[in-house]
């Protein structure tokens, strides 16, 4: 076990986590030995993969994964057509009891999904009886739509979200209740308010994003190809991080209950960003499915170093620190004019800034014929920052005009 210069523990809904890094409800938490390995590696908590009552049919198909590859990166985004766990509540009850006995200092949360009131409430009661620490309710599985709109997610209906959150809270005697919503809605704040009205103690924001991962142009079959046909996937991984950050920020600015983040984190920096816009804990899935449980070492080291470097005492000190910096478009300052500026020694003379500015900017960059370096015309440059975003060498920066 690595010793850190800072205590990384954090409280979420009255439950103390040894660190804010949690495995989300997904394949890495769907097996007892795998969770043991995760705890041994150092993860602060787990959300066991979503379970259901014994009578709920779970009919998986394989293959179930595909990915968005781009620019040499294998997983910019991961698509899955997985469903909830094949392990029903009877198996999960045993896992919770075993894990709480073997790892009393770690947080064991269980994710549940029911089809009617009695199922949701039975699941809560059975999990509380075996000592689960937190109950997360998946309101973002298409299976759990309560039949209102087949194929729709529970969290896409405000009334259903409030009602089901209320049922779960009514049954929960001891455990805080977390509602996992979906970013696939018109107004995330209204959904968060609905589950808060239902009595939820916290929100898990958000989940995978319904997507079509790509189409094989030879066979015409989208990915993943399941015997000549496909279906919509849930997109997770790095590509979804900006959506998660926006979702977290909107909820944090408007709803006053704790949030656990999910969607896109890979590094400690990603987790810090999510905490800066309001998350208390950060859940990981795709990053672990790609790089393994051991990323927890870097996550803990990075967070400990960051907190110390910034002069904070504990992870809780950084929660929400970026929120005041998010304003409406109309409130942004227009009085200071910026332009781009070249750091010559870094330039690799690839011309990408020139091409981008020529065809997507304001034709403010030319290439000096003798040096081959980009030259920025201060008059023409409006400071749009496109050149900075395309430069592979971080050779451009923004300065005041
Ligand atoms: C293969 C797979 C299965 C998943 N199963 C569940 C599930 O059973 N319940 C649930 O709430 N979320 C499930 N998720 C969603 C993850 O818990 C997580 O919210 C999502 O992947 C976004 O986080 P990430 O970008 O770190 O992967 C699953 C994700 C994947 C990739």
Briefly characterize the structure.
With 401 residues, the chain is an alpha/beta fold. 30% of the residues lie in helices and 20% in strands. It has an eight-stranded parallel beta barrel, surrounded by eight helices. It has a four-stranded antiparallel beta sheet with strand order 5-6-12-11, with no helix packed on it. Strands 1-2 form a two-stranded antiparallel sheet.
What does the model show?
There is one protein chain. The protein has eleven helices and 18 strands. The chain is of the alpha/beta class and 401 residues long. It has two domains: 10-325, Alpha-Beta Barrel (TIM Barrel); 333-400, Alpha-Beta Plaits. Strand 3, helix 1 and strand 4 form a beta-alpha-beta unit. Helix 3 (117-129) packs parallel to helix 4 (158-171) and helix 5 (188-197) packs across helix 6. The N and C termini lie far apart (51 Å). It binds flavin mononucleotide (FMN). Residues 24-27, 49-50, 78, 80, 82, 84-85, 111, 138, 180, 207-208, 236-237, 240, 262-265, 284-287 line the site of flavin mononucleotide. Flavin mononucleotide binds at residues 24-27, 49-50, 78, 80, 82, 84-85, 111, 138, 180, 207-208, 236-237, 240, 262-265, 284-287.
Shape, principal axes of CA atoms: globular
CATH class of the largest domain: Alpha Beta
Strand-residue proportion = 15-25%
State the helical fraction.
Answer: 25-40%
Poorly predicted regions:
none
Mean of all residue-level pLDDT scores: 95
Identify the CATH homologous superfamily of the largest domain: Aldolase class I
Bound ligands, each once: flavin mononucleotide
How many whole angstroms does the radius of gyration measure?
Answer: 23 Å
Q: What structural category characterises the helix and strand content?
A: alpha/beta
Distance between the terminal alpha carbons, to the nearest Å?
A: 51 Å
Number of strands: 18
């Amino acid at each position: 076990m690595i010793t850190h210069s800072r205590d990384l523990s954090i409280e979420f809904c009255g439950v103390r986590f040894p660190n804010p890094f949690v495995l989300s409800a997904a394949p890495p938490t769907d097996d007892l030995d795998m969770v043991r390995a995760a705890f041994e590696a150092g993860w602060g908590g787990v959300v066991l993969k979503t379970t259901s009552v014994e009578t709920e049919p779970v009919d998986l198909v394989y293959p179930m994964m595909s990915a968005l590859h781009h620019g040499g990166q294998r997983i910019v985004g991961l698509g899955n057509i997985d469903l909830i766990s094949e392990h029903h509540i009877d198996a999960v009850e045993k896992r919770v009891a075993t894990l709480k006995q073997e790892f009393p200092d770690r947080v064991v949360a269980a994710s549940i999904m029911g089809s009617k009131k009695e199922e949701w409430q039975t699941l809560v009661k059975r999990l509380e009886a075996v000592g689960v620490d937190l109950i997360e309710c998946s309101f973002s599985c298409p299976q759990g739509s309560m039949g209102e709109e087949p194929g729709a997610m529970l969290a896409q209906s405000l009334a259903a979200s409030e009602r089901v959150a209320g049922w779960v809270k009514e049954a929960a005697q001891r455990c805080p209740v977390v509602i996992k919503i979906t970013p696939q809605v018109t107004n995330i704040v209204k959904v968060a308010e609905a589950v808060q009205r239902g009595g939820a103690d916290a929100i898990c924001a958000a989940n995978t994003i319904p997507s079509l991962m790509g189409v094989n142009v030879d066979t015409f079959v989208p990915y993943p190809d399941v015997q000549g046909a496909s279906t919509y996937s849930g997109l997770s991984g790095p590509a979804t991080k900006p959506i998660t950050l926006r979702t977290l920020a909107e909820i944090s600015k408007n709803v006053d209950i704790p949030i656990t983040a999910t969607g896109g984190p890979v590094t400690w920096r990603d987790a810090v960003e999510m905490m800066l816009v309001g998350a208390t804990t950060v859940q990981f899935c795709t990053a672990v499915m790609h790089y393994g449980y051991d990323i927890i070492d870097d996550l803990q080291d990075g967070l400990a170093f960051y907190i110390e470097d910034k002069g904070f005492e504990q992870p809780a000190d950084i929660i929400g620190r970026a929120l005041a910096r998010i304003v409406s478009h109309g409130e942004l300052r227009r009085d200071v004019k910026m332009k781009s500026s070249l750091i010559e020694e870094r330039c690799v003379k690839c011309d990408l800034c020139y091409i981008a500015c020529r065809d997507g900017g304001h034709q403010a960059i030319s290439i000096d014929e003798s040096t081959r370096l980009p030259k920025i015309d201060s008059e023409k440059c409006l400071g749009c920052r496109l050149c900075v975003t395309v430069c592979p060498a971080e050779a451009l920066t923004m300065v005041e005009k």
